[in-house]
Amino acid sequence: MIKSRNKLVWVLIAILILAGVIIYVNDQKQPKDDVIKIGAILPLTGATAQYGESLRDGMELAKEELVKKGLNLEIYYEDSAGDPKQAVSAYQNLKLKDIDIIVSALSRSSMALVPIVNNDKIPLIMTVVSAKMEKTPYVLRFYPNDTGYADAHFSVINTTKYKKISVLYVNDEFGISLKDAINQNAKEKGVQVVYEEDFEPGTKDYRTILLKVKETSPDAVMVVGASPAEIIGPLKTMKELEINADFFEIATALSIKSVRSQTDTEGAYTTAFPFVLNKSGNEFKEQYTKKYREEPFFAAPFGYDIVNLISEATKGEKVSGEELLNKIYALKTFNSSNEIVEIKENGEINPALYSVKIVNGELEEVKV
Amino acid sequence: MIEAYLIHLLILIGIYLILAISLQLALGFNGLSNFGHIAFFGIGAYTSALLALSGWSFLICFVSAGILAMIFGFLLAIPTNKLKGDYLALATMGFSFVVYAVLLNWTELTRGPLGIPGIPRPVLLGYSLSDNFSFLILTAVIALASYFVIYRITKSPFGKVIESIRDDELASRILGKNSFKTKSIILGVSAFFAGIAGSLYASYITFIDPSSFTMMQLVPVLLIVIVGGLASLPGTIMATFILMLVPEALRFVGFPSSIIGPMRQILYALILIIILIYKPKGFYGKVEMV
After folding, report:
1. Where are the CATH 3.40.50.2300 domain residues in chain A?
2. How many angstroms away from the CA of B55 is the closest CA of chain A?
3. Position A6 pLDDT exceeds 70
4. In this complex, do A119 and B264 lie within 8 Å of one another by their Cβ atoms?
5. B114 to chain A, minimum CA–CA distance in Å?
6. Minimum mean pLDDT among A21-30, A325-334, B72-81, B258-267: which range?
7. Backbone torsions φ then ψ of A170, nearest 5 degrees
8. CATH value of A36-144+280-349 in 3.30.70.2190, 3.40.50.2300, 3.60.20.10, 3.20.170.30
9. What is the pLDDT of residues A152-171, one digit of tens each?
10. Chain B partners of A84 at a C-beta cutoff of 8 Å?
11. pTM of the complete model
12. Is A28 left (phi over 0), alpha (psi -120 to 50) or beta?
């Protein structure tokens, strides 16, 4: 027993020494100090891995193009698994590499990074984050904010046709933020919200909620879901229950062709990014499809654009901290894959979203 | 630069050590399959965060986090008194689902899924622990104190009673030991330490949301207890260090970006499987897992 204990203690000591050596060796072999170093804290595993993987693919594509042009930069990827604790660990690890700027995705992990980057004065660009948030000095958001999705529909819909609406939303930070934005828009346009109810992420059965919706006889049902299943599920059930109301998705799942093909989506409304509607980013789409042999998921152009934004701001010059942040703000606008976006003083870089209707399986832009 | 990273890891190890040894007290020493432990961690984290944001001092937030979690521990002991093994595990799991649902849906208090950002760092006796090194000292002191208290409990005559209840509850009762009272105390004490670990977690990460306190978050803590060995405090310390450091060490293995996330998880899982093949009772396990 004592012998086996001693053995284990030696094994533990060996593991700790090995870990120490690996850390030391890695600390010594830092890359050149004259290149911009981007730390990307993305959900590369877990339920939200699809976002992280496509952001990484977009970032890699941009890096490849920039390197060909002679602009050097390093990108270090860390997995957050969408978890705040892991995101903080990943950040502390990236700091060892003398990172100049951090890119993070998803609200939960990004929110945990906000106080730390502000304290360390390292700029952070968040993406795939739509929840309501306060402005803080070192943080930028490159993604539509909470009002972006609702505004896209309410700026074009005929409010004389839609007097009463029902709202279903997923009970997470995305759903709650967007539900508030719908209510705000409805109030301003004089549209009555006759029923609203949340559902848990991953819900499979929407019958009970939609039966209650049916009783209120709305002109439109607006659904906020964080995953395609949370949009397809209510849409299918609405048809089964013969609810005679227009379906509005307050997210972008139905703008993806493979999602639309899962059920009868004819006549439903959704929002779409400009690059999905071929309004911009065609070159990106072409290069992406060539490299990865598949159509880009909607998160991919954000990874691509963020790397290009950093590169355009710094012009390959090694800058960090406040100087790097000021250079990004100094651009004022940026020609992204999703049209030209404004870099606002409050740290928001919000690409436009368009309200679209599905006609014959294709997206048709809704105009006033 | 490397110091900052190591300090961060040591802080997390300290927090998880408190969480794991408190679970060890209930699960390893008393045989209570308490799957509601993560809920006590959550109750502590939310209590501390909400009080801190209302302007209360860290000491009050910290103690209140422990006390409120302890009250819930005592309360949980009442309906689960006669349950054992799998049934107790299911009931305590149910408790953690209830707490999660409350954290998620009581939006006026907890902000629901939006979580609570901007939790202030502790200020003790006018000294701000905003830098990680001072926070590490605080965590280390609390972890050591927690270890000492739990160690004393397990080595005391009362400690023998809790182990006897684990091994044969009926025999203990025949000998005049009040098993309900004993189990309630253990659940309460265990919950207290989980609560203070939650307080430290909230103050350190500065952002909490209900997803941080789901059953999935209990898995690493359970793993620490199992790998360390049931009813072994030194084993728990060893397992906490190993299980917290191995995934971090894997960050330094230069995988290509396309497989970086899954590859690390596969390696981590492999290491765990190898440990459990060669040490099925954990490092210093004294009792079999039921």
Report:
1. 36-144+280-349, 148-273+354-365
2. 18
3. no
4. no
5. 5
6. A21-30
7. -75, 140
8. 3.40.50.2300
9. 998 887 777 889 999 999 99
10. 205, 207-209, 212
11. 0.84
12. alpha
